[in-house]
Design brief:
Length: 84
């Protein structure tokens, strides 16, 4: 399992979650601001499912993969594709 960043991050992208992640798997990367309307992504292979990022997001964009709301399940693939 992993955590997924969904649509509410788009255009907000304040990086609050980046500060909390103990394994730096939400690192902004070169050029990320130009990708998919300005949002961040979680690298599934590195995420340790600690949940630290979830409560700090001001727009509730972060969910455990199993709890991603129906309308945003496409973001599971979008996050994975970003690191492919
Ligand atoms: S759940 Fe933990 S390890 Fe995974 S992205 Fe969030 S803060 Fe990082
Ligand atoms: S805290 Fe939320 S809005 Fe801010 S960058 Fe992370 S996912 Fe996006």
């Amino acid at each position: 399992m992993t955590y997924i960043i969904c649509e509410p991050c788009v255009g907000v992208c304040d990086k609050a979650c980046v500060e909390e992640c103990p394994v730096d798997c939400i690192q902004p990367r070169d050029g990320y601001d130009d990708i998919a309307g300005k949002q961040l992504y979680i690298e599934a292979d590195t995420c340790i499912d600690c949940g630290a990022c979830e409560p700090v997001c001001p727009v509730n964009a972060i969910y455990p993969e199993a709890d991603v709301p129906e309308e945003w399940t496409n973001y599971i693939e979008i996050n994975a594709a970003h690191f492919a």
